[in-house]
Design goal:
The chain has helices at 10-16, 22-35, 43-49, 55-68, 75-81, 87-98, 104-113, 119-130, 134-141. It has 151 residues and is an all-alpha fold. It folds into two domains: 1-69, Alpha Horseshoe (Leucine-rich Repeat Variant); 71-151, Leucine-rich Repeat Variant (Alpha Horseshoe), CATH 1.25.10. The radius of gyration is 17 Å and the shape is globular.
């Protein structure tokens, strides 16, 4: 990918996510990630790329989403992906959700995922919770909660 190709607008790269050409989709996820937060409009397409048949596109989409940054309002889209039949799609979603662990709603979701049938999701949720500070957990459940993580 050349420096001049990155001068194209976010919309150009977002449209390439739907290309039949796998190399174009790979380039698109990389380019969108380099835009960082300026590529927020591309998040729906990147979430859809979690279902791409190509592993490099899926992994690139996770990287791009984390570079762009997710917010609590993106959580419903990610929760929907956790219900996908494909384990790879669920793994992409939980990887991104793990970057939001300081959000009380993500703490609540992670605790619900501890009972998920998918062992990988359970392990990722447990790992995220172990990295969460006690103040965030208290925010998630109210100040009356006396919750402690076992080391």
């Amino acid at each position: 990918m050349t420096a001049s190709s990155l001068n194209k607008p976010v919309s150009f790269w977002a449209n390439l996510l739907r290309s039949l050409n796998v190399k174009a989709r790979r380039a698109a996820v990389y380019a969108l990630g380099t835009f960082g937060p300026r590529a927020r409009e591309a998040l729906p397409g990147l979430f859809a790329a979690f279902r791409d048949s190509d592993a490099m596109v899926r992994e690139g989409a996770v990287w791009a989403v984390t570079e762009i940054g997710v917010r609590p309002q993106d959580l419903p889209s990610l929760e929907t992906l956790l219900q996908d039949a494909e384990p790879e799609v669920r793994e992409c979603a939980i990887n991104v959700i793990g970057t939001m662990i300081r959000e009380p709603s993500v703490v609540q979701l992670s605790i619900r995922l501890l009972r998920d049938a998918d062992a990988k999701l359970r392990l990722r949720a447990e790992d995220s919770l172990r990295r969460t500070d006690p103040e965030t957990i208290q925010l998630a459940f109210g100040s009356s909660t006396n919750y402690q993580m076992n080391e």
